[in-house]
Structure formats: C-alpha cells, structure tokens
Write a structure and sequence with these properties.
disordered N terminus; Rossmann fold; 650 residues
C-alpha cells in the first residue's frame, strides 16, 4: 500500500510539473545576461556581499549555543560579555554589508532599466509608420514602463533571491550536519511536503502575473486615449464622460481584482508553508528534547539547531520552486523581447547612398501599394503577444486603420516631376493622394514598382539624407507641448534666433508670435491646441523653411482655413516653393491653378493627368476633357477662394 501511495505521489508531482512547465531556454537566459554583462563587476561584488551576509547569519546560533552551554552553565561573565558584544556586532556588520548590497543592486537595476528602455525606444524609432498605425500607444507605454521594471526585478530581485537561497541552504545544512546529523535528516524528511503545493501555486501565480500585465496594459491604453487633448475633446463633444468613467472603472476593477487574486493565492500558499514549517519545527524540538533528556547532546545545541531550522525551510521552499519563480519573473523579459524582435520594415541597406546635392527629380515607376501587406515582413507587427493558455495569437497592437474593401491603395501609378516643378494631386477621398505623399519620404515602401529621386531608388538611399531632402507639411500639424521656439528649432537645432525670426517672417507668422506676451517662449499646449489651425500651419511652414529642403510635400496644407489664413499661407507658400520640387494635395482651386502638372486619382489609379503648356494651363486642359477633374471642379473647386499661386513668381 505504501509503495502504491509513494508511486502515486511522485507520479502526481511529475504530472504537475509537466502540465504547465514554464518555458525558459538557455537562449533566453543568454540574451538576458547580455544586458547584465556590462555590470558583471558589480554583479560579482553583489555575489560577494551575498556570501558575506550568509556567512554572518550562521554565527548567531553558535553564539546562542555557547551562551547556554558555556557562559551561563559555567558562570563565565567575561565570556557572557564578549558573546553579548558579538550579538550586537554581527547585526551591525550585516547592516553595513547590506547597505553595500542594496547600493550595488540598485545600480545594476537602474542601469538595466535605462538600457532596456533605450533599446526599446531606439527600436521603436526605427519602425515604419505601419507599426504605429497598427499599435496602441498605451500598449507601447506599458512595455516601456511596467515590463521594463518587471525585467529589472527579475534580475535584481528574483535572481538574487535564488542565489541567496541556494547559498543559505547549503551553508545551513553544513552547520546542521556538524551539530546533529540525525535531527538534520529528520528536518529534511518533510521537504517533499513543500514541493507539490509550491509548484502548483507557482504556476498559478505565473498565469496571474501575465494576465495582470495584460490588464494593466489595457488600462494604460484607455488612459492614454482619453486623457490626451484629442481624446478629452472627443469625449466632451459627444457627452460620453459617464461611459468613459464606467469603462475605466471596469478596467481598473479588473486590475484590482487580479491583484487581490494574486495576494490571496500567495497568502494561502505561505500560510500552508508556515503550518508545515511549524510542524517540522515542533517535531524537531519534540524528538530533540527527548534526546537532550537522554544526554545525547546539550540544550545549547538544540537551541542553535532550532535557529538554523528557521533559516532552512524558507530558502528550501523557494528553491523547490526556483525555476517557476524565475520563469515567472522572466515574463517581463519575454514581453520586452517580443517588441525588440519585431522586424524593422524600412531600414537602410549596408551600402546606402548619401545624396549630397539633390536636384529634385521625382519618378514613380508602376508603383503599387497595399496597407495590409508589409514590404519587409510588416505583417509580423500583428502578432506581438501570444496567449500561452488559450493558444491564440492576440495582437498587442490593436488595428486602428481597418482593412478596406479595396486591397490596393495604389495600383500601377507612374509619373515624373522634374526639378523645380509643382505637381498637384487631385481626387475624391480615398483615391490614394495621401498614400503618394507618404511613399515619397519613405514612410512606407511600395508593395510593387519603385520610386526614384534623382534616378536613385529610394530603397538605395539613406533615410537620413532622404529626410534632409524632403520637407513635409501634413494635414494635421503636430506640435510638442513646449515653447514656440523649441518647436521651430526641432527642424534645425543649430538655427540662430535671427534664422528663426526670418523663417517666421517668410511664413507670415512672426508678427503674431511677437504680439504674444512671452513671444517665442510661449508654450503652445499639448498638440499646439492653444493655436488656431492657420497659425499651426504657418508654424509648420516656418519649420520647413528652417529645414530648407529641396523637395516639398504639402498634404492638404490649406484645407479648412478661413480666407485670411489661406491668403497668408498661400503667400508664404509662394516664397517657399520657389525653385523647389513640390508635390501638393489640393482640395482648393487656389492651390492647383498654378501647377505645372495635375494628377487626378481615383481608386488608387491615375485616371487623368495634364502638363502645363505654353498656351494652356493643366487646369484648362483637364476642364476641356470633361472627365473626373471637371466633375470635381464643378462640385468642389469652383466656389473656393480664387487666390492663385502664380508660377510667374516661382
């Protein structure tokens, strides 16, 4: 019967281990060590402090034994005094060494946090625009904050605890065997009672921890989406404050509930272990007491042995579940590496070309593009996280831009813009105009075909030189929550104050800035919400002037503005486009009448195009064809402000 029970016990333990064994590979461990390697001298110092503190912790029980068996029994006051000094001195030395240990641990931990955050941030900076349109900002913030801190705790907390426990157990067992080998074997005999519950609870805590991270990430996402200026404005305009409060309450409650669950599971677990430890200690004192009565050893020995026993069971419990604890703590590293392992869709070739002098010749050769296909493995962005329990791929990066019925945003688009020419893009919403403006600065790579600048395929050109050659004014101008001067200098950090003011004069915004109480030191607020749309766009134009690029890309830069703002912007654009190649999305007649070339797009294709001739403008030629452009003119352009960019001034 006992054999059957024994077989069943170990079979249960093996089954319990295999059922949900945490996955931790040497490859993962080596990668983690790669981040700790720069701190290896400090790690060595940390391990030295662990050995020192462990050694000191073994001395007090010996002092207790000597106090009882020698000092008190023999009435040796001098010995008693020295033992008292030792009992005070050892905690002092331990505290001093502990201070050094804490300093080394904090230095290593904070260094790891900085290194991991830098690695994550640098990797994210290299990602294409596709990554950010498919990823929630709150999720990224969670990886940069919660998971990085968790990864730091894995090394400076869990890893250090494991080493400390291993050293403590071996050292304590040596001392216990030297005191009384029979009681030592008796104490070890109850260790199997720790193993099964420890593993089982460790596995549950690992699941709870990963779920806790996911719930925290969702709560962070909600906060990021609703507490930024755009989200707050949207909530107020639609009167959804109560709904958002309830949504946040539910997510906050889910985080709280998982925290309570973790605390309760851990508490019941340690309560059980405490009971087992109490039983083991009681049995040891009971049997040891009988042995003292028979004269097998002294009272001081059993007191010292009891002290060592308290130092044994706690570390033994942790060691029995060490691999589960370590794998659980490594969840944070796994989540960090999930982001670091995402392929960089757009990157420079090893021999990328630096363009020293750009003339501005732009050519699209049969360009095809789809937002649902990654040029260099962009589809990998959709699977950041694996739910290890359900076995389902769950995207940490929730899709913002939904898949449209038309798979191709652009299809076989070809055109050429000669240096210094102005090309206007015209077409209904969703025709592909913005996509073209995103492809030129290589925010995306084409799915098919190629785009050339001065005869060079953009994929052969370094991104740094391409960024210097192209200036872009987007539909929604984004400003940092900083001063006007800081936002302007973002385009040219080395620009002087006179350079900044000259650019603002050219953009027709200097007088407005000068009229502000703090002038160029005025803080614009989040996303520049303290400025009007026209003011923000003129700031954007001033930034482009400071950058002084050879090619301009204007994405609906004059749409939805009042007549006065548009006139000021058009006048500024006349100056900035002079002698530069310009690609302009036009929703107003005033931005296309002076174009050298007009490209009319529909459903991702160029359906009409015209070039300025000596006798007719491109606009006039397209009107005569009575096609899509003529239709757009009668429905959209004809009643817009007739302020024309004159090519005679360009």
């Amino acid at each position: 019967m006992s054999n059957g029970l024994g077989t069943g016990w170990w079979t249960y333990i093996r089954y319990d281990q295999e059922r949900d064994r945490p996955k931790i590979s040497w490859a993962l461990f080596r990668r983690v060590w790669g981040y700790a390697k720069p701190y290896q001298l400090k790690v060595l110092g940390l391990l030295t402090t662990i050995l020192a503190i462990t050694g000191l912790s073994l001395i007090p029980p010996l002092l207790y034994r000597d106090l009882i068996d020698n000092a008190i029994m023999n009435g040796d006051t001098s010995r008693l005094n020295w033992l008292a000094v030792g009992m005070i001195g050892i905690p002092i030395f331990t505290a001093i060494i502990g201070f050094g240990q804490r300093y080394l641990s904090a230095t290593i931990g904070e260094g790891l946090i900085a290194d991991l955050r830098n690695a994550l941030f640098n990797h994210m900076q290299q990602m294409s625009l596709r990554f950010f349109t498919h990823t929630k900002t709150g999720e990224l913030m969670s990886r940069l904050n919660n998971d990085v801190v968790g990864a730091q705790n894995a090394l400076t907390g869990t890893f250090i605890n494991i080493i400390t426990n291993v050293v403590t157990v071996f050292a304590t067992l040596i001392m216990m065997f030297s005191l009384e080998w029979r009681l030592t074997l008796l104490s070890i005999a109850i260790v199997p009672l720790f193993i099964a519950p420890t593993r089982r609870v460790g596995q549950r805590l690992r699941k709870i921890r990963r779920r806790s991270m996911e719930l925290n990430a969702k709560m962070n996402t909600l906060m990021q989406e609703t507490l930024n200026i755009d989200g707050a404005l949207l909530v107020k305009l639609f009167g959804r404050q109560a709904d958002e409060k309830e949504r946040f309450r539910q997510r906050s409650k889910a985080v709280a509930d998982i925290g309570v669950r973790s605390a309760v599971v851990g508490r019941w677990f340690f309560m059980g272990l405490g009971l087992i430890s109490a039983i083991g200690t009681a049995v040891m004192f009971w049997i040891g007491g009988h042995m003292v009565l028979r004269g097998a050893f002294t009272v001081g020995t059993i007191v010292a042995f009891g002290a060592y026993l308290t130092q044994l069971y706690g570390p033994l419990t942790s060691i029995s579940n060490a691999h589960v604890e370590f794998a659980t703590s490594m969840v944070s590293f796994e989540r960090v590496f999930e982001v670091l392992d995402l392929p960089v869709e757009i990157q420079d070739k090893p021999n990328a070309i630096m363009l020293p002098d750009v003339t501005g010749a732009v050519t699209f050769h049969d360009v095809t593009f789809s937002y649902t296909e990654g040029g260099d493995g962009g589809s990998a962005l959709m699977g950041l996280m694996v739910d290890r329990h359900a076995g389902e791929i769950a995207s940490t990066a929730s899709i913002i831009a939904q898949k449209t019925s038309r798979q191709l945003a652009l299809e076989a688009v070809s055109f050429e813009i000669k240096p210094g020419e102005l090309a206007a893009l015209v077409g209904p919403s969703g025709a592909g105009k913005t996509t073209i403006t995103y492809l030129l600065p290589r925010l995306y790579d084409p799915t098919g075909g190629k785009i050339c600048l001065d005869g060079h395929d953009l994929r052969d050109v370094s991104q740094v030189s391409l960024a210097k050659a192209i200036g872009m004014v987007t539909q929604e101008t984004y400003l940092f929550n900083d001063t006007l001067k800081a936002n302007l200098l973002y385009a040219a950090p080395d620009a002087t104050q006179s350079d900044v003011e000259a650019a603002c004069r050219a953009a027709n915004i200097h007088h407005f800035i000068a009229s502000l109480p703090d002038g160029y030191d005025t803080v614009v607020g989040e996303r520049g919400y303290r400025l009007s749309g026209g003011e923000k766009q003129r700031i954007a134009i001033a930034k482009v002037i400071l950058k002084d690029p050879r090619i301009l890309v204007l994405d609906e830069a004059t749409s939805n503005l009042d007549s006065q703002s548009e006139a000021l912007i058009q006048e500024a654009l006349e100056r900035i486009m002079k002698g530069r190649t310009s690609l302009v999305i036009a929703h107003r007649l005033s931005t296309i009448l002076g174009a050298d070339m007009i490209l009319v797009l529909d459903q991702g294709r160029i359906v009409e195009h015209a070039y300025r001739s000596e006798t007719h403008s491109a606009h006039e030629q397209l009107l005569e064809r009575k096609g899509l452009y003529a239709s757009l003119y009668h429905t959209q352009f004809r009643d817009t402000v007739p302020h024309t960019i004159s090519r005679h001034h360009l």
